[in-house]
Amino acid sequence: MQYIYLIVIKLYGFLIWIAHFFNEKARLWINGRKNIWYNLSKVSNKWREKVIWLHVSSLGEFEQGRPIIEAIKKQYPHTCVILTFFSPSGYEIRKNYEKADFIFYLPLDGKRNAKKFFDYINPSLVIFVKYDFWYFYINEAHKRNIPVILISAVFKSNSIFFRWYGAFFRKIITKFDEIFVQEDESKKLIETFARSVVVAGDTRCDRVLQIASTAKVPDKIIALVNNRLVIVVGSAWKEDMLILKPLFGIYKHVLWIIAPHQIDSGSIKAIATCIDKPYTLYSQITGVANFSNNFIIIDNIGMLSSLYSIAQIAYVGGGFGKGIHNILEPAVYGIPVIFGPNHHKFNEAKDLIKCNGGFSIHSSDEAKSIFSSIIENENLRIKYGNAARNYVVQQAGATNKIMTYIEELLFQ
Protein backbone atom coordinates (compact mmCIF):
# COMPACT_ATOMS: atom_id res chain seq x y z
CA MET A 1 0.00 0.00 0.00
CA GLN A 2 2.92 2.34 0.67
CA TYR A 3 3.99 2.05 -2.97
CA ILE A 4 0.46 2.73 -4.22
CA TYR A 5 0.34 5.79 -1.95
CA LEU A 6 3.65 7.03 -3.39
CA ILE A 7 2.46 6.51 -6.97
CA VAL A 8 -0.75 8.45 -6.25
CA ILE A 9 1.24 11.31 -4.68
CA LYS A 10 3.61 11.51 -7.66
CA LEU A 11 0.68 11.37 -10.07
CA TYR A 12 -1.01 14.17 -8.13
CA GLY A 13 2.12 16.31 -8.40
CA PHE A 14 2.35 15.61 -12.15
CA LEU A 15 -1.28 16.58 -12.72
CA ILE A 16 -0.79 19.80 -10.78
CA TRP A 17 2.26 20.54 -12.94
CA ILE A 18 0.18 20.09 -16.10
CA ALA A 19 -2.64 22.20 -14.69
CA HIS A 20 -0.34 25.07 -13.75
CA PHE A 21 -0.07 26.09 -17.42
CA PHE A 22 -3.71 27.18 -17.45
CA ASN A 23 -4.93 27.23 -13.82
CA GLU A 24 -3.98 30.07 -11.45
CA LYS A 25 -4.27 28.06 -8.25
CA ALA A 26 -2.12 25.26 -9.65
CA ARG A 27 0.40 27.87 -10.85
CA LEU A 28 0.68 29.25 -7.33
CA TRP A 29 1.10 25.70 -5.99
CA ILE A 30 4.00 25.00 -8.38
CA ASN A 31 5.71 28.41 -8.29
CA GLY A 32 5.47 28.61 -4.51
CA ARG A 33 7.56 25.47 -4.19
CA LYS A 34 10.26 26.40 -6.73
CA ASN A 35 12.76 27.75 -4.22
CA ILE A 36 11.60 25.75 -1.24
CA TRP A 37 14.90 24.02 -0.48
CA TYR A 38 16.87 27.24 -0.75
CA ASN A 39 14.40 28.96 1.57
CA LEU A 40 14.50 26.08 4.02
CA SER A 41 18.29 26.27 4.09
CA LYS A 42 17.90 29.66 5.79
CA VAL A 43 16.29 28.07 8.81
CA SER A 44 18.68 28.06 11.74
CA ASN A 45 17.76 27.19 15.29
CA LYS A 46 21.15 27.89 16.85
CA TRP A 47 19.80 30.92 18.68
CA ARG A 48 16.48 29.35 19.55
CA GLU A 49 15.46 27.24 22.50
CA LYS A 50 13.11 24.98 20.53
CA VAL A 51 11.78 24.55 17.00
CA ILE A 52 8.13 23.63 16.52
CA TRP A 53 6.76 22.78 13.09
CA LEU A 54 3.01 23.22 12.59
CA HIS A 55 1.38 22.09 9.34
CA VAL A 56 -2.04 23.03 8.01
CA SER A 57 -3.81 22.25 4.78
CA SER A 58 -5.38 25.63 4.10
CA LEU A 59 -6.92 28.74 5.66
CA GLY A 60 -9.58 27.01 7.75
CA GLU A 61 -7.04 24.73 9.40
CA PHE A 62 -4.74 27.69 9.93
CA GLU A 63 -7.45 29.31 12.05
CA GLN A 64 -7.48 26.17 14.20
CA GLY A 65 -3.71 26.14 14.55
CA ARG A 66 -3.39 29.87 15.09
CA PRO A 67 -4.36 29.89 18.80
CA ILE A 68 -1.62 27.34 19.50
CA ILE A 69 1.00 29.34 17.60
CA GLU A 70 0.08 32.52 19.45
CA ALA A 71 0.02 30.81 22.83
CA ILE A 72 3.49 29.37 22.18
CA LYS A 73 4.93 32.72 21.08
CA LYS A 74 3.34 34.53 24.02
CA GLN A 75 4.62 32.15 26.68
CA TYR A 76 7.86 31.07 25.01
CA PRO A 77 8.86 33.90 22.65
CA HIS A 78 12.27 32.42 21.84
CA THR A 79 10.71 29.28 20.40
CA CYS A 80 10.99 29.08 16.62
CA VAL A 81 7.66 28.33 14.93
CA ILE A 82 7.71 27.03 11.36
CA LEU A 83 4.33 27.10 9.62
CA THR A 84 3.66 25.17 6.42
CA PHE A 85 0.67 25.16 4.09
CA PHE A 86 -0.31 22.65 1.46
CA SER A 87 -2.82 24.83 -0.39
CA PRO A 88 -2.29 28.24 -2.04
CA SER A 89 -5.64 29.43 -0.70
CA GLY A 90 -4.13 29.40 2.78
CA TYR A 91 -0.52 30.31 2.05
CA GLU A 92 -1.20 33.30 -0.18
CA ILE A 93 -3.43 34.92 2.44
CA ARG A 94 -1.26 34.18 5.49
CA LYS A 95 2.27 34.15 4.05
CA ASN A 96 3.07 37.32 6.02
CA TYR A 97 1.58 36.13 9.31
CA GLU A 98 3.82 37.79 11.89
CA LYS A 99 3.62 35.20 14.68
CA ALA A 100 5.39 32.46 12.70
CA ASP A 101 9.15 32.75 12.22
CA PHE A 102 9.11 30.93 8.88
CA ILE A 103 6.23 30.19 6.51
CA PHE A 104 6.58 27.78 3.60
CA TYR A 105 4.67 25.60 1.23
CA LEU A 106 5.11 21.96 2.23
CA PRO A 107 7.15 20.03 -0.36
CA LEU A 108 5.23 17.13 -1.86
CA ASP A 109 5.27 14.06 0.36
CA GLY A 110 7.94 11.45 -0.30
CA LYS A 111 10.71 9.62 1.54
CA ARG A 112 13.51 11.79 0.15
CA ASN A 113 11.65 15.07 0.63
CA ALA A 114 10.68 14.20 4.20
CA LYS A 115 14.26 13.32 5.15
CA LYS A 116 15.64 16.47 3.54
CA PHE A 117 12.97 18.63 5.19
CA PHE A 118 13.74 17.29 8.68
CA ASP A 119 17.48 17.66 8.09
CA TYR A 120 16.90 21.37 7.50
CA ILE A 121 14.45 22.26 10.27
CA ASN A 122 15.26 19.66 12.97
CA PRO A 123 12.07 20.28 15.01
CA SER A 124 11.50 19.37 18.64
CA LEU A 125 7.78 18.88 18.01
CA VAL A 126 5.55 18.40 14.97
CA ILE A 127 1.89 19.50 15.01
CA PHE A 128 -0.64 18.57 12.34
CA VAL A 129 -4.01 20.30 12.35
CA LYS A 130 -7.29 18.44 11.81
CA TYR A 131 -6.23 16.32 8.82
CA ASP A 132 -3.92 16.47 5.77
CA PHE A 133 -1.85 13.55 7.03
CA TRP A 134 1.33 12.91 5.03
CA TYR A 135 2.77 9.45 5.60
CA PHE A 136 6.45 10.01 4.88
CA TYR A 137 6.67 13.21 6.94
CA ILE A 138 4.94 11.62 9.91
CA ASN A 139 7.00 8.46 9.55
CA GLU A 140 10.26 10.42 9.38
CA ALA A 141 9.41 12.21 12.61
CA HIS A 142 8.54 8.87 14.18
CA LYS A 143 11.88 7.37 13.09
CA ARG A 144 13.76 10.31 14.60
CA ASN A 145 11.85 10.07 17.90
CA ILE A 146 10.36 13.52 17.35
CA PRO A 147 6.92 13.83 19.00
CA VAL A 148 4.04 14.27 16.55
CA ILE A 149 0.61 15.44 17.68
CA LEU A 150 -2.70 16.07 15.94
CA ILE A 151 -5.03 18.84 17.10
CA SER A 152 -8.68 19.80 16.46
CA ALA A 153 -9.18 16.46 14.73
CA VAL A 154 -12.50 15.07 13.55
CA PHE A 155 -13.09 11.51 12.39
CA LYS A 156 -16.21 10.24 10.63
CA SER A 157 -17.33 6.63 10.42
CA ASN A 158 -17.43 6.79 6.60
CA SER A 159 -13.88 8.15 6.22
CA ILE A 160 -11.03 6.28 4.58
CA PHE A 161 -9.62 5.08 7.93
CA PHE A 162 -12.56 2.75 8.49
CA ARG A 163 -12.94 1.21 5.04
CA TRP A 164 -11.75 -2.28 4.06
CA TYR A 165 -8.64 -0.78 2.44
CA GLY A 166 -7.94 1.64 5.29
CA ALA A 167 -5.24 -0.33 7.16
CA PHE A 168 -2.44 1.78 5.70
CA PHE A 169 -4.13 5.01 6.77
CA ARG A 170 -4.87 3.65 10.24
CA LYS A 171 -1.15 2.94 10.44
CA ILE A 172 -0.51 6.66 10.00
CA ILE A 173 -2.75 7.38 12.97
CA THR A 174 -0.74 5.00 15.17
CA LYS A 175 2.36 7.16 14.69
CA PHE A 176 0.86 10.18 16.45
CA ASP A 177 2.02 10.47 20.06
CA GLU A 178 -1.15 12.33 21.04
CA ILE A 179 -4.37 13.11 19.21
CA PHE A 180 -6.63 15.92 20.40
CA VAL A 181 -10.12 15.44 18.94
CA GLN A 182 -13.07 17.80 18.93
CA GLU A 183 -15.73 15.45 20.32
CA ASP A 184 -16.46 12.06 21.87
CA GLU A 185 -17.58 10.42 18.64
CA SER A 186 -14.14 10.90 17.08
CA LYS A 187 -12.45 9.45 20.14
CA LYS A 188 -14.62 6.34 20.07
CA LEU A 189 -13.79 5.74 16.42
CA ILE A 190 -10.00 5.75 16.80
CA GLU A 191 -9.20 4.88 20.40
CA THR A 192 -8.82 1.16 19.62
CA PHE A 193 -5.77 1.79 17.41
CA ALA A 194 -4.49 5.27 18.34
CA ARG A 195 -1.81 5.59 21.01
CA SER A 196 -3.55 8.28 23.04
CA VAL A 197 -6.69 10.30 22.38
CA VAL A 198 -7.98 13.32 24.31
CA VAL A 199 -11.28 15.14 23.76
CA ALA A 200 -10.16 18.76 23.83
CA GLY A 201 -12.66 20.60 21.64
CA ASP A 202 -12.07 22.99 18.77
CA THR A 203 -9.37 25.66 19.12
CA ARG A 204 -11.44 27.96 16.90
CA CYS A 205 -13.80 28.54 19.82
CA ASP A 206 -10.89 30.03 21.76
CA ARG A 207 -9.96 32.07 18.72
CA VAL A 208 -13.40 33.59 18.12
CA LEU A 209 -13.76 34.44 21.81
CA GLN A 210 -10.45 36.27 21.61
CA ILE A 211 -11.53 38.13 18.47
CA ALA A 212 -14.86 39.08 20.03
CA SER A 213 -13.13 40.64 23.02
CA THR A 214 -11.32 43.12 20.78
CA ALA A 215 -13.87 43.62 17.99
CA LYS A 216 -14.07 47.13 16.59
CA VAL A 217 -16.53 48.27 13.93
CA PRO A 218 -15.76 51.43 11.91
CA ASP A 219 -17.70 54.46 13.10
CA LYS A 220 -19.11 55.12 9.65
CA ILE A 221 -20.82 51.71 9.69
CA ILE A 222 -22.25 52.24 13.16
CA ALA A 223 -23.63 55.63 12.11
CA LEU A 224 -25.61 53.99 9.31
CA VAL A 225 -27.35 51.45 11.54
CA ASN A 226 -29.71 54.09 12.93
CA ASN A 227 -31.91 51.71 14.97
CA ARG A 228 -32.32 49.30 12.07
CA LEU A 229 -32.08 45.55 12.46
CA VAL A 230 -28.75 44.42 11.00
CA ILE A 231 -28.25 41.19 9.07
CA VAL A 232 -24.67 40.37 8.12
CA VAL A 233 -24.17 38.00 5.22
CA GLY A 234 -20.64 36.71 5.56
CA SER A 235 -18.47 34.96 2.95
CA ALA A 236 -21.28 35.25 0.42
CA TRP A 237 -21.27 33.39 -2.88
CA LYS A 238 -23.60 34.05 -5.79
CA GLU A 239 -25.49 30.86 -4.92
CA ASP A 240 -26.19 32.17 -1.42
CA MET A 241 -27.38 35.51 -2.73
CA LEU A 242 -29.82 33.91 -5.14
CA ILE A 243 -31.40 32.04 -2.22
CA LEU A 244 -31.65 35.23 -0.17
CA LYS A 245 -32.75 37.50 -3.02
CA PRO A 246 -36.54 37.16 -2.44
CA LEU A 247 -36.00 38.52 1.10
CA PHE A 248 -34.34 41.76 0.07
CA GLY A 249 -37.49 43.73 -0.68
CA ILE A 250 -39.63 42.56 2.24
CA TYR A 251 -38.22 44.30 5.32
CA LYS A 252 -37.58 48.02 4.95
CA HIS A 253 -36.14 48.35 8.46
CA VAL A 254 -33.35 45.82 7.83
CA LEU A 255 -29.81 46.89 6.98
CA TRP A 256 -28.06 44.17 4.99
CA ILE A 257 -24.26 44.15 5.26
CA ILE A 258 -22.81 41.73 2.72
CA ALA A 259 -19.21 40.50 2.64
CA PRO A 260 -18.36 38.52 -0.52
CA HIS A 261 -16.24 35.39 -0.14
CA GLN A 262 -13.61 37.07 -2.30
CA ILE A 263 -12.87 40.77 -2.61
CA ASP A 264 -12.46 41.23 -6.34
CA SER A 265 -14.44 43.04 -9.00
CA GLY A 266 -16.00 39.83 -10.35
CA SER A 267 -17.29 38.64 -6.98
CA ILE A 268 -18.58 42.08 -6.01
CA LYS A 269 -20.36 42.44 -9.36
CA ALA A 270 -22.00 39.04 -8.91
CA ILE A 271 -23.22 40.01 -5.43
CA ALA A 272 -24.51 43.36 -6.66
CA THR A 273 -26.41 41.71 -9.52
CA CYS A 274 -28.17 39.40 -7.09
CA ILE A 275 -29.18 42.28 -4.83
CA ASP A 276 -30.78 44.05 -7.79
CA LYS A 277 -31.43 47.11 -5.64
CA PRO A 278 -29.46 50.25 -4.77
CA TYR A 279 -26.37 49.47 -2.72
CA THR A 280 -23.25 51.21 -1.45
CA LEU A 281 -19.71 49.89 -1.40
CA TYR A 282 -18.04 50.26 1.97
CA SER A 283 -15.15 52.14 0.38
CA GLN A 284 -17.57 54.74 -1.00
CA ILE A 285 -19.26 55.58 2.30
CA THR A 286 -18.32 59.08 3.39
CA GLY A 287 -21.12 59.71 5.86
CA VAL A 288 -24.81 59.32 6.59
CA ALA A 289 -25.76 62.00 4.09
CA ASN A 290 -24.71 60.00 1.05
CA PHE A 291 -26.34 56.77 2.19
CA SER A 292 -29.97 56.16 1.28
CA ASN A 293 -30.40 52.42 0.81
CA ASN A 294 -30.49 49.19 2.79
CA PHE A 295 -27.43 47.42 1.38
CA ILE A 296 -23.72 47.73 2.06
CA ILE A 297 -21.22 45.56 0.18
CA ILE A 298 -17.91 45.20 2.00
CA ASP A 299 -15.05 45.61 -0.46
CA ASN A 300 -12.06 45.20 1.85
CA ILE A 301 -10.50 42.37 3.85
CA GLY A 302 -10.42 41.83 7.60
CA MET A 303 -13.69 43.40 8.78
CA LEU A 304 -16.11 40.50 8.71
CA SER A 305 -15.50 38.98 12.15
CA SER A 306 -16.03 42.38 13.79
CA LEU A 307 -19.10 43.24 11.71
CA TYR A 308 -20.95 40.31 13.21
CA SER A 309 -20.81 42.15 16.54
CA ILE A 310 -23.42 44.70 15.40
CA ALA A 311 -25.73 42.13 13.77
CA GLN A 312 -28.93 40.65 15.14
CA ILE A 313 -28.85 37.80 12.60
CA ALA A 314 -26.05 36.26 10.54
CA TYR A 315 -26.05 34.28 7.36
CA VAL A 316 -22.81 32.45 6.54
CA GLY A 317 -22.15 31.51 2.93
CA GLY A 318 -20.67 28.50 1.22
CA GLY A 319 -23.40 26.03 2.09
CA PHE A 320 -24.72 25.93 -1.46
CA GLY A 321 -21.23 25.15 -2.73
CA LYS A 322 -18.25 23.23 -1.34
CA GLY A 323 -19.11 23.87 2.29
CA ILE A 324 -19.97 26.55 4.83
CA HIS A 325 -17.46 29.09 6.04
CA ASN A 326 -16.81 29.85 9.71
CA ILE A 327 -20.12 29.92 11.61
CA LEU A 328 -18.42 30.24 15.00
CA GLU A 329 -17.40 33.83 14.16
CA PRO A 330 -21.00 35.13 14.34
CA ALA A 331 -22.20 32.62 16.97
CA VAL A 332 -19.79 34.03 19.56
CA TYR A 333 -21.71 37.34 19.52
CA GLY A 334 -24.95 35.70 20.62
CA ILE A 335 -26.88 35.90 17.36
CA PRO A 336 -28.73 33.19 15.40
CA VAL A 337 -26.70 31.80 12.49
CA ILE A 338 -28.26 30.63 9.24
CA PHE A 339 -26.43 28.66 6.52
CA GLY A 340 -26.91 26.38 3.54
CA PRO A 341 -27.28 22.59 3.34
CA ASN A 342 -23.64 21.60 2.71
CA HIS A 343 -22.56 21.61 6.35
CA HIS A 344 -22.26 17.93 7.24
CA LYS A 345 -18.48 17.96 7.57
CA PHE A 346 -18.68 20.58 10.31
CA ASN A 347 -19.50 19.44 13.82
CA GLU A 348 -20.26 22.96 14.96
CA ALA A 349 -23.09 23.19 12.41
CA LYS A 350 -24.65 19.98 13.65
CA ASP A 351 -24.30 21.12 17.26
CA LEU A 352 -25.70 24.61 16.66
CA ILE A 353 -28.70 23.15 14.86
CA LYS A 354 -29.26 20.78 17.77
CA CYS A 355 -29.24 23.58 20.36
CA ASN A 356 -31.32 25.98 18.19
CA GLY A 357 -28.43 28.40 17.77
CA GLY A 358 -28.11 27.67 14.06
CA PHE A 359 -30.43 26.84 11.16
CA SER A 360 -29.83 25.18 7.81
CA ILE A 361 -31.87 26.17 4.78
CA HIS A 362 -32.28 24.43 1.42
CA SER A 363 -34.36 26.93 -0.55
CA SER A 364 -35.64 30.49 -0.74
CA ASP A 365 -38.92 29.38 0.82
CA GLU A 366 -37.09 27.98 3.83
CA ALA A 367 -35.00 31.17 4.01
CA LYS A 368 -38.18 33.26 4.09
CA SER A 369 -39.67 31.12 6.85
CA ILE A 370 -36.61 31.14 9.11
CA PHE A 371 -35.69 34.78 8.59
CA SER A 372 -39.27 35.98 9.02
CA SER A 373 -39.74 34.18 12.33
CA ILE A 374 -36.48 35.53 13.73
CA ILE A 375 -36.85 39.06 12.40
CA GLU A 376 -40.44 39.45 13.66
CA ASN A 377 -39.98 37.85 17.09
CA GLU A 378 -37.35 39.57 19.23
CA ASN A 379 -37.71 37.11 22.12
CA LEU A 380 -37.10 34.19 19.79
CA ARG A 381 -34.12 36.00 18.29
CA ILE A 382 -32.59 36.51 21.71
CA LYS A 383 -33.28 32.92 22.73
CA TYR A 384 -31.59 31.50 19.63
CA GLY A 385 -28.70 33.92 19.94
CA ASN A 386 -28.06 32.97 23.57
CA ALA A 387 -27.99 29.31 22.55
CA ALA A 388 -25.36 30.06 19.92
CA ARG A 389 -23.17 32.02 22.33
CA ASN A 390 -23.47 29.40 25.08
CA TYR A 391 -22.35 26.69 22.68
CA VAL A 392 -19.13 28.55 21.85
CA VAL A 393 -18.36 29.27 25.49
CA GLN A 394 -18.97 25.66 26.51
CA GLN A 395 -16.64 24.41 23.75
CA ALA A 396 -13.77 26.73 24.69
CA GLY A 397 -10.60 25.55 26.41
CA ALA A 398 -8.94 23.36 23.76
CA THR A 399 -5.94 25.67 23.50
CA ASN A 400 -5.18 25.39 27.22
CA LYS A 401 -5.43 21.60 27.13
CA ILE A 402 -3.07 21.34 24.17
CA MET A 403 -0.65 23.88 25.61
CA THR A 404 -0.50 21.96 28.90
CA TYR A 405 0.62 18.90 26.94
CA ILE A 406 3.20 20.87 24.93
CA GLU A 407 4.61 22.53 28.05
CA GLU A 408 5.02 19.22 29.88
CA LEU A 409 6.63 17.73 26.78
CA LEU A 410 9.08 20.49 25.88
CA PHE A 411 9.43 23.10 28.57
CA GLN A 412 9.57 21.27 31.89
Concise overview:
The chain contains 19 helices and 14 strands. It is an alpha/beta fold and 412 residues long.
Q: Got a strand count?
A: 14
Rg of Cα set: 23 Å
CATH topology of the largest domain: Rossmann fold
Major sheet attributes: 7 strands, parallel
The named CATH superfamily of the largest domain: 3-Deoxy-D-manno-octulosonic-acid transferase, N-terminal domain
The helical percent reads: 40-55%
Which whole number gives the mean pLDDT? 93
State the low-pLDDT regions, or none. Answer: none
Number of domains: 2
The helix tally amounts to 19
Tell me what you see in this structure.
The chain has 19 helices and 14 strands. By secondary structure, the protein is an alpha/beta fold. It folds into 2 domains: 2-201 and 397-410, Rossmann fold, CATH 3.40.50; 210-395, Rossmann fold. α7 links the parallel β4 (125-129) and β5. α4 crosses α10 (203-213) and α6 crosses α7. The two termini are 40 Å apart.
Topology of helices and strands:
Blueprint: H1 2-19, H2 24-31, H3 36-40, E1 51-56, H4 59-75, E2 80-85, H5 88-94, E3 102-105, H6 111-121, E4 125-129, H7 135-143, E5 148-153, H8 167-174, E6 178-181, H9 184-190, E7 197-199, H10 203-213, H11 219-225, E8 229-236, H12 238-244, E9 254-260, H13 265-275, E10 280-281, E11 295-297, H14 304-307, E12 313-316, H15 328-331, E13 337-339, H16 347-354, E14 358-360, H17 364-376, H18 378-395, H19 398-410
Parallel strand pairs: 1-2, 1-4, 2-3, 4-5, 5-6, 6-7, 8-9, 8-12, 9-11, 10-11, 12-13, 13-14
Helix pairs in contact: 4-10, 6-7
